[in-house]
Amino acid sequence: MEHRAKLTAKGRATRERIVRAAAQLMAEHGVAHTTIKDVQAAAGVSASQMYHYFSEKSELVSAVVEGQSDQILGSQELALAQVHSIAELSRWRHLMVEAMRDKGCTGGCPIGSLANELAETDPPARARLEGAFARWQALITDCLTAAMARGELPPGTDVDRIALSLLAGIQGGLLLSQVHRDTKPLEAAIDTMIDYLRRLAPG
Amino acid sequence: MEHRAKLTAKGRATRERIVRAAAQLMAEHGVAHTTIKDVQAAAGVSASQMYHYFSEKSELVSAVVEGQSDQILGSQELALAQVHSIAELSRWRHLMVEAMRDKGCTGGCPIGSLANELAETDPPARARLEGAFARWQALITDCLTAAMARGELPPGTDVDRIALSLLAGIQGGLLLSQVHRDTKPLEAAIDTMIDYLRRLAPG
């Protein structure tokens, strides 16, 4: 953070270009298969520039985990800010399915993939990703709390646990959609949870 | 297959020892971080023995994907053969949660992890893992079909789609449990689906 505060605007732009290039390469080929040299070439920077910003691969991995978490959480925050009812959850589901379809069902969730690759080998990355998933769960909990306040769910529903279950369905749905090259698993996972919420409705 | 048929019993045992060592290293450190040399050392075989069975890493990866798929599907087949009702699904859920707890929530699903690492870089592995997930889904579908036959689910319930959704919950639940080092996400994912099935019950 301190390091970044000292960068000029141009320096920040270069650093961001490097992190974006690294994020893309790591999403395509995995963290292990991405070298500092690959990133340097993809970002179009010199070896000395690269070294100025990231002297070790671990620093680059950490910046990618932070960048991908912020990006996914940022877009989820925007989308979920529009959701105050179960019907609105269906619109959010539609956005995620379309995004997966647009990618031809290649690649899973960027932070899910990083979690899978780094959970056992990079403790700081695991801790950061744990925080990102907790924030994501909290965003879903807020939507379910709003739906409960509207009377769509019985008072006292354990919305935090249902949010965790919905997030698990999204992560597993994205992985299975990636493996099957088909959006069906993602659709089934979220639709089943939405149907569950409808069946909880009082009366 | 043809190659394997020609092996002696001793040769088969050596080959299996190599595949088991490779599977363990790949589960711990990822496929990319596991070299032929690491596997050779872990299996305690000579370089020429190693080369006799696996001349390229891709052959070893393929054998690990096949071995892990067979092992997971074999144990799921045994466990799910006991499940003919929604109540019996809870016992199966208990087994999976206990298995994750026994590992201290380290490592996710072996085939989910392989899928995440290989889906974009190894098309034959992706195809084989797709088959493994389809078989797993079919095993769950059989259980739900049995529950429907007992009258626990309304006739005509789309049990295949619910099975897919349950499998997504398991995969995402295992990943989140690994990241959080806590069985709660896996428990929430499966319990919510079991509660959903109970709420579908006629009458």
From TrEMBL, chains A, B:
The keyword Transcription applies. Keywords: DNA-binding, Transcription, Transcription regulation. GO terms for molecular function: DNA binding. The keyword Cell division does not apply. Residues 12-72 form the HTH tetR-type domain. It comes from the Bacteria. Residues 35-54 bind DNA. Pfam families: TetR_C_13, TetR_N. InterPro entries: Homeodomain-like_sf (IPR009057), HTH_TetR (IPR001647), Tet_transcr_reg_TetR-rel_C_sf (IPR036271), TetR_C (IPR011075). This is Transcriptional regulator. It comes from Mycobacterium rhizamassiliense. The lineage of its organism: Bacteria, Bacillati, Actinomycetota, Actinomycetes, Mycobacteriales.
